[in-house]
Amino acid sequence: MNSLHIDSQDLARRMRIQALQMVHRAKASHIGSALSICDIVAVLYGQVLRLDPKQPTAAQRDRFILSKGHACVAIYAALAETGFFPTDDLLKYGQDHSVLMNHISHKVAGVEFSTGSLGHGLPFGTGKALAAKRSKQDWRTAVLLSDGELGEGSNWEAMMFAAHHQLDNLVAIVDYNKLQSLTTVDKTLRVEPLADKARAFGWAVREVDGHDHAAMTALLSALPWEPGKPSFLIAHTTKGKGVSFMENSVDWHYKSPSAEQLAQALGELNHA
């Protein structure tokens, strides 16, 4: 099974447009968190993950877990824009009885695991990676976490477990935008020195600009970085990336854009 080889830059732009429209339409939140990860997700879906939109449950597919489940509109947009389901289905996001729930749901084609309670994605992904190793399968598991989520102890238990079992078919990617729900990560619960901590737990560590598609594609296409070690990618990002008035603003963790704000945001993205 091969990766899709889609222009990830264009995919990220289309994802941002879809995400903004979904959140505005549903009067929902977490748009800043979703915009933060669009470039990472576009590289994964466009260039790296081995997936077949026509066979979303194919046995040899790579597994992707969004641990920061509140940023689900970015994943729904990626799945729709890469052919897992019609883009018109995005109109149903956040509506009563829709499978496109406000936290990511496994009822959606292409979604592996429902998340929302933080700290669950990496333990689940670690179990997937162990299953692949024990069954001698070559599919890989990628887990995308938030920086604020690293305050959950379950992540560190999973990191010890993954290193102990030499799960080099596992990559954890941290969306390191330095903001969480109400203020900065440093003021809430400092995670630094993050790279040193991950290395001490037995992981191979790299850092990257989480909006640099070429750099991320090169790193994520060369996994594992060290045989016998799981991989830990610290992606330095900007919350609200792509929309000038949302960038680096904690306000957009919970706010929904008005019609005027949506128009301005779409205008910026369409002229990017």
Give the structure's gist in a few sentences.
By secondary structure, this protein is of the alpha/beta class. It is built from nine helices and five strands, in the order ααβααβαβααβαβα.
Task: Give an account of the 3D structure.
The chain is of the alpha/beta class and 272 residues long. 39% of the residues lie in helices and 11% in strands. Helix 4 (121-134) packs parallel to helix 5 (153-164).
Spatial strand arrangement across the major sheet:
1-2-3-5-4
> Mind describing the biggest β-sheet?
5 strands, parallel
- Overall geometry: globular
Helical region count?
A: 9
Oligomer: single chain
- Portion of residues in beta strands equals 5-15%
Write the layout of secondary structure elements.
Blueprint: H1 8-26, H2 31-48, E1 63-66, H3 72-81, H4 121-134, E2 141-146, H5 153-164, E3 170-176, H6 185-189, H7 194-200, E4 204-209, H8 213-220, E5 231-236, H9 259-270
Key features of this structure:
272 residues
